[in-house]
């Protein structure tokens, strides 16, 4: 089994802190590297139809494509994923309503600064994924797992990133101010949570593990999600090799959790960095959801699955909306390198790590308040 059990969260904190600092160094090295031999110019599209088949061979066929994508690009689109179109359209529409209809004073009332858990409204330039050298233009609304949002009802043992369980920590807008908001979010979140569990079964197959290998690790999973708004560009510019963008929506970064499922509207903006230093636009695919490997899964697979650097630059005169879910396992699990990613010639490169603490230490580096 990959987990080595549950321990008090303080144990292993030092290693997750140094892991967070290592990750920052890794990011800097990726941003300056230009000479890797493996590279890519496009992002694969994986049709999930066969993943829902009762035939294991069919499911393994999809898992093989996932393995190929994760060992090379670290990003792929999924289509035929089963989330109804109207649920997706509705959540993007709610994002628009949140930023346009909710009065500023109500946004302030649920400002992220009131939260110990990075939840609530986050204005532009409040956080920065890499070192605060440029102000990020995005604004966001952040929330996380609640038992009531989980269609399975969970196992009632949810803990936050720091291992505590304080009860409800999400900061929601008042129903009277944004009618239907909680319901619409809840519908999408439930769907995308279940899709993430489905994907984890495919990830297990893709890593030559039993299909239910991760099952007991996602009974109260971490799942931070956001509505993000990128303002229209003041000075729209096409993507160029010169990399001299003044308006950065979200700076270059890797994600922290196991994997991310990202719904984006019809405006491009997401760009991913190929190993030889080219930014590739992850154009929206009709009915598609973007999936990318996060650093926690990269570590867990001993570096076999790639966590790829990406950023967002809105190059259009239209605003852009997106909704990522950062799917993690139960935050109180401690994991060590997956057995199928180890061999005599390839010993573990990473020490055991607590799922929540690792993410917390990464997130804490993105805000200046010093509060977290
Ligand atoms: O908005 C997007 O397209 C990407 C968002 C993202 O990369 C993130 O929130 O980590
Ligand atoms: Fe990201």
Automatic annotation (TrEMBL):
InterPro entries: DIOX_N, IPNS-like_FE2OG_OXY, IPNS-like_sf, Iron_ascorbate_oxido_reductase, Oxoglu/Fe-dep_dioxygenase_dom. It comes from the Eukaryota. One of its GO terms (biological process) is small molecule biosynthetic process. PROSITE patterns: FE2OG_OXY. Keywords: Iron, Metal-binding, Oxidoreductase. Coiled coil: none annotated. GO terms for molecular function: metal ion binding; oxidoreductase activity. Residues 221-329 form the Fe2OG dioxygenase domain. PANTHER family: 2-OXOGLUTARATE (2OG) AND FE(II)-DEPENDENT OXYGENASE SUPERFAMILY PROTEIN-RELATED. Belongs to the iron/ascorbate-dependent oxidoreductase family. This is Oxidoreductase-like protein. It comes from Hyaloscypha bicolor E.
